[in-house]
Amino acid sequence: MTRRDADPTTQGRTQTLERTQTQRPRLYRVLLLNDDYTPMEFVVMVLERHFRKAEQEAQLIMLAVHHKGQGVAGVYTRDVAETKVAQVTAEARQHGYPLRLVAEPEAES
């Protein structure tokens, strides 16, 4: 009886299978940047709708944006972060607001 998957060139020898380790994908922070025109209420709504923040957390992030110039809306893989930036930017433009968001890589630890 012969094995169909047996490689005739390796008969009698041991094969070593190499295992590859999967790495976690790099994460990106989505930052909201302060401007003088976008209403605070719109920023809170964006945080609740697009970033699934509770009202109180959204208020705190909005205040960080207002007082510190930027606030972290969330941390995601690159594709998700870039999609959120595009979606929120499009919605802000539809409402006539210049709200800016950026996705930047998180510091590696």
Automatic annotation (TrEMBL):
Compositional bias ranges of the Low complexity kind: 9-21
Domain of life: Bacteria
Any one GO MF annotation of this record: peptidase activity
Annotated stretches, region: Disordered: 1-21
UniProt keyword terms in alphabetical order: Hydrolase, Protease
Keyword S-adenosyl-L-methionine: no
A Pfam family hit: ClpS
Residues in Adaptor protein ClpS core domain copies: 24-101
Entry keyword Hydrolase: yes
Gene3D superfamilies for the chain: 3.30.1390.10
GO biological process, one term: proteolysis
NCBIfam families cross-referenced by the UniProt entry: PRK00033.1-5
Sequence similarity: Belongs to the ClpS family.
Task performed by this protein: Involved in the modulation of the specificity of the ClpAP-mediated ATP-dependent protein degradation.
Subunit structure as annotated in this protein's UniProt entry: Binds to the N-terminal domain of the chaperone ClpA.
Full protein name: ATP-dependent Clp protease adapter protein ClpS
Organism annotation: Deinococcus rhizophilus
